């Protein structure tokens, strides 16, 4: 057989022992590859697998996808790079499928056990990986397809080794015998999982690429079969029902809150990192999965600078790790808020120290454990100007309307581009290179020819280019409202929001153009702000129009530049777009040539009033309200604006002042 003088005959070989059969089959295969004697003119069949040579690497396991697939962060690729994480499918073995909840596919028997077996042994561990072959598979079910077939994707397969000894079946895991020319580095993970009965060995065709340790895998499988382990046993896999609260209603999540309050610290497993500060957690004790977010800490949102770095850091630190959580409350979307520890380390501190998160002061600091440590971590990142603090400017002392402190605070140099009602306005950062970059991209576009009717049908939420009526220039905009169905006339009207300036306008279809993805990719530059610590009436309320006009006079019409000291961030507006929606920065706004803040000036004219005080207010907020109080007192004494008839009846924060009676028909 080895010398090509004989052929392997399946029916008679079946009478032999497995080991002897395997040796004969291997001998024939080697003779075929070397084209010896009777195999001189042998042509191997086409195969969709291809060998991978010289692609060995070391790294840390960051995710176990299933019993036969893991994700490893390559040590040779810079930390945080999207290329650092490599998906490795274990060579020549197949484990039960984990299913897909989105398609209502339930996990196969022992799929959860196989995944958990690898999670507890590999997550966070350093491994050696030997890539062996790639194989093209169909996109739907992973079945093999011809190499030239459309929509085929390549899967890379390799052998993974734990450098240290791992116990298997009560003894040291069996050592695989490496083939000539290869070098083994520890315990073969594929052999380990097959020996536990959590996977089977794939029977490859003669010329298909396979694991370099294929014989050892077959031996491990034989032991599992004889021992009736896992999928080879007659027993059913243990049943486990998990209540997924991430897909349930917010009311159901709130109803579950008392169960999470029974213990102060609750063991959990991080199932997935949804964002830098948001995770999906499994609570084994309560057999449920929840959406969880840090209290008072926020990372950049998706597509914002350093968002990917924050996610990469959390994947390396806590993905699929055993953690402890302390739940405080649940928000209106059904996300539980609290603190999370891994190996007794508060992971919010890790994010803040790396400059990948900010404290959100709208949360009550007295409810957050280790809050003083969170503040120290943020201050440390600010001093070093790490990541999101790279352009941070140390706060200056602002008199007459801002807390006077020497501590650092985020201060932005801005110009006001639009004023809304209720004390809200849009700003652009002064000197922001993104503005010039976008305008340069627009200057190269040919936008003279109007689009053909029917070829371009913008709908609500679409990004477009729009001709601004005042200066006849093109700007990026988003459609806020428009006609239903296809466009019928060039005079059809569309309401658009200019994402780089904050203003809104109704324009005809003839003033719209489709936008290139390269131009629309950058986020909008205009930032929605409000005046911190004061309440300004809305346009439909008494003195609402006067307040908006005076705010415009102080800011938009003055042509001045301002220092905006960020006091709080309100993200309750979510990701909604359009004028007056989205995340809001509550700021103290001071012109660069002024000694009084715009906040104080609005109070002084009686066109705003101080926010209600609460006994749990932070010291900084109390001091700011104390500094602004004399300006409100002056307006009250002089009967200015809303104080013209004396004191205003106090109301709760969420209750607006009495509005003027609407005119028109009753």
UniProtKB/TrEMBL annotation:
Residue ranges of domain Tudor in the record: 457-522
**Which CDD domains does UniProt cross-reference here?**
Tudor_AtTudor1-like
GO cellular component term, pick one = P-body
InterPro entries, from UniProt?
Answer: SNase_OB-fold_sf, Staphylococal_nuclease_OB-fold, Tudor, Tudor_AtTudor1-like
| Primary location | cytoplasm
Record-linked PROSITE patterns: TNASE_3 (PS50830), TUDOR (PS50304)
Segments for region (Disordered):
644-666
Q: Which SMART domains match?
A: SNc, TUDOR
User: What superkingdom heads the lineage?
Assistant: Eukaryota
TNase-like domain location: 55-234, 264-391
Q: What are the GO BP annotations of this UniProt entry?
A: cellular response to heat; mRNA catabolic process; mRNA processing; positive regulation of gibberellin biosynthetic process; response to salt stress
Query: GO molecular-function annotation terms?
Result: hydrolase activity; mRNA binding; nuclease activity
Sorted alphabetically, the keyword list is: Acetylation, Cytoplasm, Endoplasmic reticulum, Hydrolase, Nuclease, Phosphoprotein, Repeat
Q: What is its subcellular localisation?
A: Cytoplasm, Perinuclear region; Cytoplasmic granule; Endoplasmic reticulum
Q: Which PANTHER family match?
A: EBNA2 BINDING PROTEIN P100 (PTHR12302), STAPHYLOCOCCAL NUCLEASE DOMAIN-CONTAINING PROTEIN 1 (PTHR12302:SF2)
Its recorded name reads: Ribonuclease TUDOR 1 isoform C
Native species:
Glycine soja (Wild soybean)
């Amino acid at each position: 057989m080895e010398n090509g003088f004989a052929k392997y005959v399946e029916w008679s070989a079946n009478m032999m022992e497995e080991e002897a059969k395997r040796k004969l089959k291997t001998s024939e295969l080697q003779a075929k590859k070397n084209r010896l004697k009777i195999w001189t003119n042998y042509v191997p069949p086409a195969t969709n697998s291809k060998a991978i040579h010289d692609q060995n690497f070391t790294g840390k396991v960051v995710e176990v996808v299933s019993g036969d697939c893991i994700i490893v962060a390559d040590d040779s690729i810079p930390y945080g790079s999207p290329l650092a994480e490599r998906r490795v499918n274990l060579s020549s073995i197949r484990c039960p499928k984990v299913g897909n909840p989105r398609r209502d596919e339930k996990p196969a028997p022992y799929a959860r056990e196989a995944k958990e077996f690898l999670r507890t042994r590999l997550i966070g561990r350093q491994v050696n990986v030997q890539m062996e072959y790639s194989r093209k598979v169909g996109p739907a079910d992973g079945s093999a397809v011809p190499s030239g077939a459309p929509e085929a994707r390549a899967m890379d397969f390799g052998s993974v080794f734990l450098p240290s000894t791992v116990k298997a079946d009560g003894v040291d895991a069996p050592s695989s015998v490496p083939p000539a020319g290869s070098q083994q580095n520890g315990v073969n993970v594929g052999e380990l999982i097959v020996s536990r009965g959590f996977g089977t060995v794939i029977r490859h065709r003669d010329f298909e690429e396979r694991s370099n340790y294929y014989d050892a895998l077959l031996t491990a499988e034989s032991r599992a079969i004889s021992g009736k382990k896992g999928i080879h046993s007659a027993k059913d896999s243990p049943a486990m029902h998990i209540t997924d609260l991430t897909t349930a209603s917010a009311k159901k999540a709130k109803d579950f809150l008392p169960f999470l309050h029974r213990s102060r610290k609750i063991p959990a497993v991080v199932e997935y990192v949804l964002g830098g500060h948001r995770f999906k957690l499994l609570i084994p004790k309560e057999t449920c999965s929840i959406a969880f977010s840090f209290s008072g800490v926020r990372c950049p949102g998706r597509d914002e600078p350093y968002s990917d770095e924050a996610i990469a850091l959390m994947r390396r630190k806590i993905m699929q790790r055993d953690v402890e959580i302390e739940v405080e409350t649940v928000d209106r979307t059904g996300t539980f808020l609290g603190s999370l520890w891994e190996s007794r380390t508060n992971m919010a501190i890790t994010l803040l120290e790396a400059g990948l998160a900010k404290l959100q002061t709208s949360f009550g600091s007295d409810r957050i454990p280790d809050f003083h440590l969170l503040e120290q971590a943020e201050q440390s990142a600010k001093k070093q100007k790490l990541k999101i603090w790279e352009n941070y400017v140390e706060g200056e002392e602002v008199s007459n309307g801002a807390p006077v402190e020497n501590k650092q605070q985020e201060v932005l140099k801005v110009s006001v581009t639009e004023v809304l009602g209720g004390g809200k306005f849009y700003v652009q950062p002064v000197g922001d290179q993104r503005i010039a970059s976008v305008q340069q991209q627009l200057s190269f576009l040919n936008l003279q020819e109007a689009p053909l009717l029917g070829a371009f049908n913008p709908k609500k939420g679409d990004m477009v280019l729009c001709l601004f009526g005042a200066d006849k220039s093109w700007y990026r905009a988003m459609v806020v409202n428009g006609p239903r169905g296809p466009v019928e006339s060039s005079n059809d009207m569309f309401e658009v929001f200019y994402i780089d300036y904050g203003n809104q306008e109704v324009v005809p279809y003839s003033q719209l153009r489709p936008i290139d993805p390269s131009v629309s990719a950058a986020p909008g530059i205009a930032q929605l702000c409000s005046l911190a610590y004061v309440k300004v009436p809305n346009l439909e309320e008494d003195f609402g129009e006067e307040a908006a006009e005076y705010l415009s006079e102080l800011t938009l019409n003055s042509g001045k530049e301002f220092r905006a000291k960020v006091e709080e961030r309100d993200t309750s507006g979510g990701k909604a777009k359009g004028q007056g929606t989205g995340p809001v920065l509550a700021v103290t706004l001071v012109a660069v040539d002024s000694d009084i803040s715009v906040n104080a000036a609005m109070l002084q004219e009686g066109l705003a009033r101080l926010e209600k005080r609460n006994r749990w207010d932070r010291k900084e907020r109390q001091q700011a309200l104390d500094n602004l109080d004399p300006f409100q007192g002056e307006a009250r004494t002089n009967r200015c604006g809303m104080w013209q008839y004396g004191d205003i009846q106090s109301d709760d924060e969420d209750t607006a002042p009495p509005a003027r009676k609407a005119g028109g028909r009753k």
